[in-house]
Design a protein that fits this description.
- By secondary structure, the protein is an alpha+beta fold.
- It has a single domain, classed as DD-peptidase/beta-lactamase superfamily (Beta-lactamase, 3-Layer(aba) Sandwich).
- It is built from 13 helices and 12 strands.
- The protein starts with a helix and ends with a helix.
């Protein structure tokens, strides 16, 4: 048996036999109200109105083998702390269910799924010529990053989370002694801190013994929210993150509800963990990604293809242990018959996409204790 096949067999065993968690250590738990709508609405934010015709997302009855998948989805939803679960096949909903305090119109909060949207925003700016070359040092595109270790890394290093920043202490958060209730994201949400301030502090501390030294930039994937913040900093220094996201992403998806971006003390997006949208609009964003992938000869189509395939292996599986690798701020899974890509958020937030079969899963939760069941169901759906 080859090493690659043996590795995949071991991973499949963990998916189908064991209770391995997909994200971080322990069971990620979040407040249900904040997951459903609170983080989007209660804290400092900007609202994005839906623009243009709504992209159709019709419901249809499951057929054939889909019935078994839908029955499985319903069992998973009923027996676990899920708030929303949608299954979309070729732009049609075959399963949709919500649990209070969430409903069809709730702006389901992303947590780290926002990272993947940040990568798409950078891609749009690349294709507009605002960031001409992702292989250039990030400091070339942001004065605020000049003289920092983030500025020395290339934009691509930041996209692949390989800036060289040392291992974080708590699921991507670099604040010393970070916990679920005390980390830099909580400080940004509470308006005590800006992303730019934190990047300067983090860059200064990165090479110290506090974090165990530095790694060579570009050498290894190492999950860090600071890399995402550095990307949004580049966007804000080249016309603005919100204008770029709004024009090139949000206004293209055909949303039906308002979207929300959390803002820090400088009124800049909390890019690593700050976007909220309804379940159906999360599906529409994923459908926009699939449409973009089909545009193979366009700049954005090529960027999306790079973003959704493995750029670096997930070598230590400290975070995202069920994923084989990382693209551009996006997790890559090889546990199905063909690779899928995933937007992953703490507490059980997931958007998974099978680009071959054009199947999408959207999940919101207040605890991620059952993700292995989600991956198993999605893999079975892929095989149909």
């Amino acid at each position: 048996m080859s090493k690659k096949l043996a590795s995949k067999t071991t991973l499949l065993a963990s998916l189908f036999c064991c209770s391995a968690l997909a994200y971080g250590q322990g069971v990620g738990t979040v407040d249900p109200e904040n997951a459903a709508w609170g983080n989007a609405k209660k804290f400092h934010h900007t609202e994005l109105a839906p623009v243009g015709p709504v992209t159709p997302l019709p419901k249809r009855e499951p057929k054939g083998n889909e019935r078994g998948i839908v029955e499985q989805a319903d069992r998973i939803f009923s027996n676990n702390p899920a708030l929303a679960l949608l299954l979309i096949d070729h732009g049609q909903i075959i399963y949709e269910r919500y649990r209070a305090p969430a409903d069809q119109n709730s702006p389901l909060f992303s947590w780290s799924m926002s990272k993947s949207l940040t990568a798409l925003t950078i891609g749009a700016m690349v294709c507009e010529g605002k960031i001409p070359d992702i292989n250039q040092p990030a400091g070339k595109y942001s004065r605020e990053l000049q003289g920092t270790l983030f500025g020395e890394a290339t934009v691509k290093n930041l996209l692949t989370m390989s800036s060289g920043i040392a291992t974080s202490q708590f699921v991507g958060n670099q604040k010393p002694g970070a916990t679920a209730d005390d980390n830099e994201w909580m400080d940004m949400r509470a308006q005590r801190l800006s992303g730019a301030e934190f990047l300067k502090w983090d860059s200064h501390k990165r090479g110290s013994k506090l974090f165990g030294g530095t790694l060579e930039s570009g050498a290894k994937f190492n999950y860090s929210s600071s890399d995402t913040l550095a990307l949004s900093n580049i966007a804000d220094n080249n016309g603005g993150f919100i204008p770029a996201f709004t024009k090139s992403i949000w206004n293209q998806v055909g949303a039906e509800n308002t979207g929300y971006w959390m803002l820090d003390r400088d009124n800049r997006v909390v890019a690593q963990s700050g976007f909220g949208a309804s379940g159906r609009d999360w599906a529409r964003i994923a459908m926009f990604g699939l449409r973009t992938l089909k545009e193979k000869d366009t700049c954005m189509g090529k960027f999306m293809a790079e973003a959704t395939r493995e750029q670096l292996p997930n070598s230590d599986h400290r975070v995202g242990k069920n994923f084989s690798g990382y693209g551009y701020q996006t997790w890559i899974a090889d546990f199905g018959p063909n690779n899928s890509y995933w937007w992953v958020g703490f507490g059980g937030q997931r958007v998974g996409v099978d680009p071959v079969n054009e199947r999408i899963i959207v999940l919101s939760s207040h605890q991620e204790s059952y993700m292995v069941e989600i991956y198993r169901m999605f893999t079975q759906w892929q095989r149909q």
